[in-house]
Amino acid sequence: MKSRNLVSFLLMSLLAVTISCTKKVDLNEKVLNLAVTSEIKGMDPIYSNDKYSSNEVGRVYEGLLEYHYLKRPYTLVPNLAESLPEVSEDGLTYTFKIKKGVLFHDDKAFEGGKGRELVAEDFVYSIKRLADPKLQGLGWWLLSGKIKGLDAWRDKNAEKDKVDYSEEVEGLRALDKYTLQFKLTKQFPQFLYSLAMPFTFAVAKEVVDHYGKEFLNHPVGTGPFMLGEFKQTAKKFSYTRNPKFRKKLFPSEASDEFKHMLKYAGKPVPFVDRIEINVVKEDQPRWLNFLKGRVDYIGIPKDNFEAAVTPGKGLDKQFEEKGVELSISPSLDVTYTAFNHDLKLLQNRDLRRALALAYDVKEFNKLFYNGTALPAQSVIPPGIAGYMPDYVSPYRNRDLAKAKELLAKAGYPDGKGLPEITYDCPSSSTSRQIGELFKKQMAEIGVNIKVVQNSWPELQKKITKRQVMLYGIAWGADYPDAENFLQLLYGPNKSPGANGSGYDNPEFNKLFAKASIMQDSPERTAIYEELNKMAAEEVPWIYGVHRQSYLIKHSWLKNYMTTDFEAGQAQYLDVDLDQKKKMQDKL
Amino acid sequence: MNTWSYIIRRLLYTIPIILGVCLIIFAIFNLSGYDPAQLLLGKHASAKQIAEVRHELGLDRPLVEQYLDIVKSAFTFDFGRSWATKQQIIEMIKEGAIPSLTLTLPAFLISTTLSILLAIVVSFFRGKAIDRALVIISVSLMSIPSLAYILFFQKFFAYEMGWFEISGYEHGFPYFVPYIILPVIIMVVLNLGPDLRYFRTVILDDIYQDYVRTARAKGLSEKAVLLKHVLKNSLIPIITYVIIQIPFLILGTLLLESFFSIPGLGGLTVKAVFDNDFPVIKAMTILSAMGYIIFTVITDILYTVVDPRVRLK
């Protein structure tokens, strides 16, 4: 064979081998194919403080409560609890009955390798683990100071070499095999939300003891899916359906917008046999894998947004023809530019108001969110009590004349006498662009801004020590209650607490303290609204936007909806294999 | 001095270098002023919790003790657990090294072999059209940013043509093969330009030496001059260039790993930097320094193999 022919032959063979090795889409098994954008830190519930880890934990582990899948506003319903708890008249004692016959996954950590029944004591143990001072669970803030005797137990054990789990805690007891009781130190209506968060999900002591420090890589829960060993460096991992999962049915009630999903009402979950998770950090491969049908749904990457979504916020025709569907929903979050209230300069309310009025949120929204986000009027996002859909802040819409007037009233006519103000932001290119836009807009009223970029740790350090003047940041809800947003402006929460700007207004603090111990009621909502208005008019921050998520999914994926609390969502999703076969040729 | 005593002496010299590396990374970390406890606890941290985590991480111990811990880990390879993932660091490194090598090693071997061969060809035809064409092509290849290659090749060859996997990785041979072919091709294309230009320069430097003129005067063919004399004498800079790259092969290549979802050490290191995961950064820095030192010793020994005039002292 001549050398030229040999080279051609080798190249063709290599190509043929490659093409034949290229993975085909499996059309015989119900597999949910998901792409996540970040590595998973581990599968231990007490460390699941980011959405990626908590979503994965939520496939394997379960809590007493969960959010109703088909209801908005978000509503808590029993999961491992038999029903919602009995609450004492003083609102301090919560008693739960837990479901009987719920089994942990089979694992060698159990006697005979068979998963045993979940009992109330497992929750006592799991919550003590969250409080364990040696483990430093990242969700401890959720229960700190809330359960009688738990903080004392934590403090006492911090001094010991080994934490004593056998010591009883007054506010956390298993009254019998299936009865669990919490006693709170003070009224805290948000407590129930804690029990729907992965931090408090049930783990079995023998599994933790068996795997020791490697427990976070050996998830064994009661949930609908099982993982086996987990490798944190892996970019791909696969769950299988738990064959011993209890009989749990798809909900038979729904809010109006989800009524069309009731076709599945009463059917046992989960519906899929496997879940394949791929960690795909970059937008292009995630997008291309979706277009090839290898990922069932994704958020639309910024660079592909205009190709996929029409100016009328519909889906482009070429995608519709492929059976792709668009889902738009608001996120429970707020972006903002915070003032450092330790600085005398920024305690000047007229100055803050002037800067807020010079800020053009519409341009910001257009440039950075393709005009899809909702301009925030104040702290509370839509979808939770306290949000006022018709309220427009007097310091929100851009008004340069009024901004200049206020700047003069603040003592700085046309910016004269005003020192250079620094704006700190993270080091990404988008953050830099946001900073530059802010600088340009402020210059129009004579305010001189200097944009300072920081690594994320550096920015956090500066905020904690309040070594910043202004900084740009965002907050996403931990649970669907306005308290979680308003606490960002509560004086006693000053950094290193969540109140990084150090805003401290006695009137606000008093009202917040009152509302934070009230049960959900029209009275509490009225106070939330008052606080929201106060936050709008006092301008402790310049409000940005409430982001909206734009997701696209393939037609074969059933029951999908965007949610702020995804943990556990996979059990309700289904893959229609006939539809998938039909659509494959079009992709 | 025999080779073994040279190796032992050079390896002993590495001890103060490792101590210095440990001191530098310890100083950088402590001078940065970041509080890892605050970063690890996230948005709800209280001062008390931060103090507890600092205690758990041993950050409240005397600085000398903390430095000695780093030194100890460098000599025992026990780097402890990652602060971010709580996993054994040495296990994370072992898991990441193989995917990185499955990508970088074939790319390195192919691009090195190919560029040496092409360098010989262009040197043989120096000044002629083929030489000029290959130099222009290599300069053009170098002028295009790596990201452009990745985006284009991935979109065109993997998505449009369907010849390769778009992204992903399967552990074990031959399962990883379909996933690494495209990134290997990209890496070869990226390396070819600089490698070819370097090797060409090295070979041409020798071509104009007196001993080559002598060889030609003796009537040796151009082919024999190039392969027997020039190439042999060019081997020292070529070996230096090639071997010094080896430690970096283990570290992987961040962009390719990121775009092709390959679970290698490049991504691991960058993630550790973003997470302020000091134990992982420390381990990777120490191992890189060690790799560099070891491969420098290997380079020196190879000099004596390819050129008997070189003596180890």
From TrEMBL, chain A:
Keywords: Signal, Transport
InterPro entries to which the protein is assigned, alphabetical: Peptide/Ni-bd, SBP_5, SBP_5_dom
Places the protein is found: Cell envelope
Gene3D superfamilies in alphabetical order: Dipeptide-binding Protein, Domain 1, Dipeptide-binding Protein, Domain 3, Periplasmic binding protein-like II
Pfam families to which the protein is assigned, alphabetical: SBP_bac_5
Primary localisation category: other
Coiled-coil ranges (or none): none
Signal found in the keyword field: yes
Domain Solute-binding protein family, chain residue ranges per copy: 75-495
SUPFAM superfamilies (UniProt xref): Periplasmic binding protein-like II
Family: Belongs to the bacterial solute-binding protein 5 family.
Protein name: Solute-binding protein family 5 domain-containing protein
Source organism per UniProt: Halobacteriovorax vibrionivorans
Taxonomy of the source species: Bacteria, Pseudomonadati, Bdellovibrionota, Bacteriovoracia, Bacteriovoracales
From TrEMBL, chain B:
Membrane topology per record: Multi-pass membrane protein
Domain ABC transmembrane type-1: 97-299
Coiled coil regions, renumbered to chain: none
Keywords: Cell membrane, Membrane, Transmembrane, Transmembrane helix, Transport
Keyword Membrane applies: yes
Compartments, record wording: Cell membrane
Ranges annotated as spanning the membrane: 12-31, 105-126, 133-153, 173-193, 238-260, 280-306
Primary site of residence: membrane
Pfam families: BPD_transp_1, BPD_transp_1_N
Family: Belongs to the binding-protein-dependent transport system permease family.
Protein name (Swiss-Prot/TrEMBL): ABC transporter permease
Organism: Halobacteriovorax vibrionivorans
